Structures are given as structure tokens and as C-alpha cells.
Amino acid sequence: MTSVETSCLAPSHALLSPPITPIMSKGEQIATSCSSIDRTPPTSSTVAAEDPVPVPKDLDDLVRLLHIELGVNGLDSKEVDVARVQTLMASYTSNQADWQKYAMFDKGRYTRNLVDDGNGKFNLMILAWPETIGSAIHDHSGSHCLMKILDGELKETLYHWPERVVNDADNADSGMGSDNSDDDEKPTAMSVKKETFLKKDSVAYMHDNLGLHAVSNPLKTQGSVSLHLYTPPYEVCKTFNERSSKARSSGKCVFYSSRGEKVESCPSAAYLKCSLTNN
Question: Which residue has the higher pLDDT, 268 or 108?
Fold first, then answer.
């Protein structure tokens, strides 16, 4: 049964993640059972065990502080605390004057707009979601993802990993689960773990160890805007068919704009493929 959770928490009580576990192969992810990972927030004493988390004055200050917190290795470094970085992002109060120049909408699909490239260690981007538009079900290629709602509302649907990931193009097993492919096996629908409605200024954490997810704007009369931190950056991920669980490569994920300037070299048709839009 799908559980539904509504998040409209103050920044200091956003959806904090558990201490990060080492990135595992997909086979190891199944063996350790992704569903056993707790997404409940740590106590305030856990987050504040070391230095207090600073409060960014604006989006530019948040970018500066993320460079300091993530250092040279990003969230894969043993010295970096995911909960602390998530608290830092939650501590920034959304201000439209800060992010409006990055929030470029395009009818019929969501857009990925680069804010900062993190010196190659992370990507900070703003995603602009038109009314009722959502992403395909996808993984994150081993990257850590932090998502903050800047305006509107987003719905996150969390899925279990399929027991066996089959590539849609060649019906070949990707290496997760059994290595024995069965071409006659009936398609298996994706299984939903949880649905969460994320309100303005809330922050959620996602990693392949937690499963797969899809994100959508549930609002019918308003676009939504979100701030995403990906570390390490990635260009290609897998998308999954909800009815059959089959996977395919997303194609190279590119940016609709970079630092407030439209990327003119990204053709509309190509961007539609790389945007992972669920349509």
C-alpha cells in the first residue's frame, strides 16, 4: 500500500537524511534492502554536534557556503555530513529576487538551469516545473541529491528498485539482481514505497540506496520551482517504465540555461529527450 506524507515543515525541521552509507553496487543495494533505510530526521543535537550550521543571507551566500561545506570531494568525502549540508540548504529562506533569473520555464516540460558547477564536484541547479508536469521514474547514477522547494509544491513518488533491471533497448540485465535474463518473463509494474508532498522551503534527500523516484508538480494553476544539489555531477541516468519496470538510458542530460543565460546550443527536440519529462 502506498503511504502519503505531507511536508510543510519549517526550514530547521526539513526532511533530514540519515548518516550517509558508502555507495554500493546495485547488487549490493538489493542485498542490503533499500527499504530498511530510515529517512527520519536526526535530532537537533546530532546536527549541532560540531560547529553550528550557518544561515545563508541569500542564494549567492548559500553557494559560497556549499563550496566551503563540500570541500574538494563533495558528499562522498568522509568528512562531509549529509544532514549538515541538508540543514544548510533548509536554512536558506526562499526569496524570488535571488532565483528568478534562473527559473526559466518551457511549456510542456521541466527545465534544468545551472546555478553553479561546484568546481566539478557538484552541480547546483534550479528546476522550473510547469503546471502538472513531472519527471520520468529515474535513478541518480550513484549521485547524492538534495532538493529544496523554492516556490509552489512538488510531489515525490519513491519506488522500490525492481528485483531485476532489464534494459528496454536490448533486454539485457544491467547487473542488479539476477544475471539470468528470461525473455518470456511477464512485465512487472514498479512498486511504490511512498508519496510525499513537499511544500515551499522544505528539503528532501535522495540517493540510489533509497530507491528510485519521480517528481512532479501537482498544481494545476501554478508553476513550481526547486533547487537541486547533485554531487558528484552526472550526465546520464536510467529512466524506468512504470508498467514494465524496464530501464533505458536518459541520453545526455544538458542544461536549458547556465548562470541565467539560455543555452542556445540545446535544440528543443534534443532537450525534450534529455529533460526526462514524463509525457
Answer: 108
